[in-house]
Amino acid sequence: MSMLELRQVSKVYGHGAAEVRALRDVSLEVAPGTMLAVMGPSGSGKSTLLTIAGSLEEPSSGQVLVANQDLAVMSRNDKARLRRQLVGYVFQDFNLLPGLTAAENVSLPLELDGVRARKAREAGLRALDGLGLADRASNYPDQLSGGERQRVAIARAVVGDRQLLLADEPSGALDSGNAETVMRMIHAACRQGVAAVVVTHDAQLASWADRVVFIRDGRIVDQTAPAAGPESLLAQER
Ligand code: ADP
Fold first, then answer.
1. pLDDT, tens digit, for every residue of 170-180?
2. CATH number of this structure's domain 4-237
3. For the chain, what are the domain ranges?
4. Residue nearest to atom 24 of ligand 1 (CA)
5. Cα of 103 to ligand 1 centre, how many Å?
6. Residue 33: which H helix or E strand, with range?
């Protein structure tokens, strides 16, 4: 069973002389509980891959399955529900709402999905707790460090049993210590069953993933299972 499956997915933007082939015959699978890192130069198709995986855009050809459901045969409403209930996004610039506390930011997706305020708040607090942020729940974003803000964004992405986490350079705006923490948190979410696709430029950060794919000119050119992530390297040093 896979949480995300792309079968021969291609994406073409524009036409004629302005045609851009952003993805070419990309096939990949991400199982529950695993983290896939996507690396590649700027313009290689990484963001396109994430937006298509998250059903925010349709492929020009090929199939996308989320939780074994073929997006092509779903209505717009069903896709919107699937996005709300199963898919969480984390962006480089966090996108937290400044007028809401950490807890309110995290529970917002559930409230928007019709969950009662109290239940949504409880789930939000659990998600924050899981990311080591229980004592920051009442803080507003401007009272949090960059690393904490990004962890709140991760909590918001996994709140209420979301099972597919899509992250576009989630550590891009952070210093190396905080970037490492963010990858560790995504890794921890995966240990609890979440499937994650994480775009990163940084090979050291990519080594947190169970698998790394390299993409160039819209094509997957290499797949590597890192022999040893940072945790096992640290274990060897001891
Ligand atoms: P990356 O995330 O690796 O930097 P993108 O997926 O953003 O790459 O872009 C892949 C290619 O598709 C680039 O050539 C980009 O210019 C093009 N592209 C992305 N989005 C659009 C769009 N909405 N319209 C036209 N071209 C696009």
1. 888 888 888 88
2. 3.40.50.300
3. 4-237
4. 13
5. 34
6. none
